């Protein structure tokens, strides 16, 4: 019997996706560069469904029904190109090559264009949910031709997570759209984790609340508007005691956060798009600062603190919760704003309601909040910014007094809250009638004759700063 899908790359993610397909009734052809992984998978889980063992890519391709669906789940980067190069001569027009790894969307755009030359479909699929999600139902973000989605989409929807019976999988858009949306998902994940860290630090260093007690607080928060996977696992990590020392595990973990690159890519893309994604950028930078352990050791010795003692209000913990919620809203607003900018730049028909809906289950940022975000973008007229949707402008307005109190308390206590504070600055920036950008434009005109527009008349102007300081209308040279 021919297989409906072939999976090459059977490390943890590929193996679990292959098992997920098989458990859902599909026949799955298996391939891995080193055959040992294929055999290990078959030995441990071969009875879970219909698998076809293959040793070479040619055998893998020969094992598939047409149009062939070959899912690549190898290490991101050059290995993906290497596998594609080996596959192309083996495939026929109309076949579908799927890259479900964490590839950069620019690589996906390049690969899609290259495979289109061979009349092959290339589908870049963002998969979130880690190992467990891949096995039990991830959130799936496929990009590529609509035609390829017709042949592949139903299978992906079947293996995806479900929320209210709806699959957490939908066609995202052409070429790199799926990987782009997955990248922004990861960027939001960075911000989500950072705001949780800031809340923890404020309650620990500011209010002296021990991790075990905080586990209870996060469990409680998980019952309300913050309900989400990350809040849930924060309670689990904070409640965990290290068996070796009897201390809270969080106290024996080195405070240097790693990163694999998708957060950095998100910020790089945001800069290219001119999208103010400050919450995600601050989260990436916060990880960077945490890993500068050498400098931090010196900083602890030579830099003054001059903290200002603050009497914490009785509602401090509730204030922190509200600040966390408001900052979280900002990071989602900025992520969606970035998606909007990318849709325009890359000509993708991104549907924010569908994207928010498929993030509701399976993925790391799954959260109750995404239900309301889905609703906000399903309305006839999508808001220009998530924060302008009535439900969210109301919610963030209600959190604002607590948010301001928390940020000023943190500043006085010398506790860094880069995302709490930069998100508040973004919020205030959005609502200010006049920004100091007017002065920036004046300065740019003085040192570089970069010109400015006036509030009271049409046109582009330049003041002759080094001459008689009269204003002239600038000639548009573009
Ligand atoms: P790894 O990223 O560790 O990659 C290992 C796999 O790649 C092995 O099957 C290996 O084969 C194969 N491989 C490496 N180089 C080559 C090559 N040149 N040619 C052919 N095959 C090669 O595996 P993961 O399962 O952790 O991740 C797979 C993808 O999924 C990555 O893009 C990752 O970023 C992404 N991802 C991972 C998540 C996770 O939680 N781990 C979550 C979401 C996405 P061999 O056995 O022969 O060495």
UniProtKB/TrEMBL annotation:
Catalytic site positions: 182 (proton acceptor), 189 (proton donor)
One of the GO BP terms on file: pentose-phosphate shunt
Keywords of this entry: Gluconate utilization, NADP, Oxidoreductase, Pentose shunt
Domain 6-phosphogluconate dehydrogenase C-terminal: 178-466
Name of this protein: 6-phosphogluconate dehydrogenase, decarboxylating
Binding site for substrate: 102, 128-130, 185-186, 190, 260, 287, 444, 450
Source taxonomy: Bacteria, Bacillati, Actinomycetota, Actinomycetes, Micrococcales
E.C. designation(s): 1.1.1.44
């Amino acid at each position: 019997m021919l297989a409906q899908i072939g999976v090459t790359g059977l490390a943890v993610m590929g193996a679990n996706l292959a098992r997920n397909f098989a458990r859902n009734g599909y026949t799955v052809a298996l391939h891995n560069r080193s055959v040992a992984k294929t055999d290990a998978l078959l030995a441990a889980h071969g009875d879970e469904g219909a698998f076809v063992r293959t040793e070479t890519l040619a055998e893998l391709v020969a094992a598939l029904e047409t149009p062939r669906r070959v899912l690549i789940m190898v290490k991101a980067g050059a290995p993906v190109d290497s596998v594609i190069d080996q596959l192309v001569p083996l495939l026929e027009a109309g076949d579908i090559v799927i890259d479900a790894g964490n590839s950069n969307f620019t690589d996906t755009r390049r690969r899609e264009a290259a495979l289109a030359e061979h009349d092959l479909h290339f589908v870049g699929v963002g998969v979130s949910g880690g190992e467990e999600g891949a096995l039990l139902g991830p959130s799936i973000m496929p990009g590529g031709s609509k035609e390829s989605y017709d042949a592949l989409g139903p299978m992906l929807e079947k293996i995806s997570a479900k929320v209210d019976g709806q699959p957490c999988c939908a066609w995202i858009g052409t070429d790199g759209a799926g990987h782009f949306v997955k990248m922004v998902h990861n960027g939001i994940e960075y911000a989500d984790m950072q705001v949780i860290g800031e809340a923890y630090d404020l309650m620990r260093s500011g209010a002296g609340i021990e991790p075990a007690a905080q586990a209870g607080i996060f469990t409680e928060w998980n019952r309300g508007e913050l309900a989400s996977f990350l809040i849930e696992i924060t309670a689990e990590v904070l409640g965990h005691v290290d068996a070796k020392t009897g201390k809270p595990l969080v106290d024996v973990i080195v405070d240097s956060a790693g990163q694999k690159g998708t957060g950095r890519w998100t910020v790089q893309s945001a800069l290219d798009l001119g999208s103010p994604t400050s919450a995600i950028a601050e989260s990436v930078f916060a990880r960077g600062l945490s890993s500068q352990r050498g400098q931090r050791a010196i900083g602890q010795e030579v830099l003054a603190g001059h903290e200002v003692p603050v009497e914490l209000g009785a509602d401090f913990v509730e204030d922190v919760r509200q600040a966390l919620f408001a900052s979280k809203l900002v990071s989602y607003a900025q992520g969606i704003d970035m998606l909007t900018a990318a849709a325009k730049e890359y000509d993708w028909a991104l549907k924010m309601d569908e994207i928010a809906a498929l993030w509701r289950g399976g993925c790391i940022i799954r959260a109750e909040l995404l239900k309301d975000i889905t609703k906000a973008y399903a309305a006839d007229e999508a808001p220009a910014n998530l924060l302008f949707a009535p439900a969210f402008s109301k919610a963030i307005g209600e959190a604002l007094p607590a948010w301001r109190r928390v940020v000023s308390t943190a500043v006085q206590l010398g506790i860094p809250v880069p995302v709490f504070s930069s998100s508040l600055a973004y919020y205030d920036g959005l609502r200010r009638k006049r920004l100091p950008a007017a002065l920036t434009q004046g300065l740019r005109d003085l040192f570089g004759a970069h010109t400015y527009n006036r509030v009271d008349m049409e046109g582009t102007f330049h003041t002759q700063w080094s001459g008689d300081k009269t204003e002239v209308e600038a000639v548009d040279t573009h």
